Amino acid sequence: MSSTPELRVDRVACTGHGLCATLLPERVHLDEWGYPVVEDPHPGRAEGEQAVTFCPARALYWADRA
Ligand code: SF4
């Protein structure tokens, strides 16, 4: 059985650029320190891939649900 991968943030690698919240405004918001909170980890594959690709810190990634 396959599971739908979730979009996650590597909080150690993330440098808080906020680009992911700009690219996925309905799925990610920034906390009071400017770091992302993923509210909905299941964006469309294309929009999620765009955010993963453009994250300047390579901190966004897809993970299989455990
Ligand atoms: S774009 Fe990448 S580095 Fe910037 S806030 Fe999002 S996860 Fe962090």
C-alpha-based Rg, rounded? 11 Å
What average pLDDT do the residues reach? 94
Broad structural category: alpha+beta
Oligomer: single chain
Helix percent band:
10-25%
> What's the CATH architecture name?
2-Layer Sandwich
User: Could you describe the largest sheet, including whether it forms a barrel?
Assistant: 2 strands, antiparallel
Order of helices and strands: EHEEHE
State the distance separating the first and last CA atoms: 13 Å
How many discrete structural domains? 1
- Give the names of the bound compounds: iron/sulfur cluster
SS elements, strand count:
4
What is the overall shape? Answer: globular
CATH topology: Alpha-Beta Plaits
The level 1 CATH classification is Alpha Beta
Explain this structure:
The protein is an alpha+beta fold. The chain has one domain (6-61): Alpha-Beta Plaits, CATH 3.30.70.20. It contains two helices and four strands. It has helices spanning 19-23, 45-54, and strands at 6-9, 28-30, 36-38, 60-63. A two-stranded antiparallel sheet has the order 1-4. β2 and β3 form a beta hairpin. The model has no long low-confidence stretch (mean pLDDT 94). The structure holds iron/sulfur cluster (SF4).
